[in-house]
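Structure request: Yip1 domain-containing protein, marine metagenome.
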Amino acid sequence: MIATIINTFTAPGETFDNIVKDYNWKQAMMPLALIMGLAIISGFVLSDQIADLQWDQIQKSINNNPNISEEQKQEILGSQYDRVYSRSGASSIFTYVTMALSWPIRIVFWSLFSMLVGNLFLGGGSGFSRVFLVACFAYLPSALELIIKTPIQYITENLMIYTGFGV
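Returned structure:
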């Protein structure tokens, strides 16, 4: 399995032919788990920068709202500060869970879209499990992107770095 993951970068044509012929949907869980794990690690490493970005956005939206009095602004900002910078509780757990679950949801929707286009418009006959399998392996460059982008974002303290392979 590790060789297949490496070969998706080094010899993608042969590897994806092999994946389509010899693998089943259960073997898609390894690349999916890898991407989910890297997303959680990235979120943990960048949690301070993410909290700072959220706090800046909250401050801008509340301070620029003319319908809120100054006393209400201070009260709202105080409660939001505690919420954004809390390190425990359900909100921090929810953050990591959503970071992990965003990738499978993204892959499922892309698989459904690919299956719709491939089967309906292009006349293919692939089932969801085969398309999902290929999509999981096709998303592996995102794992490489997370490995490259997270240290850059941490060092520069800038989350607005676009290093995706599509850029």
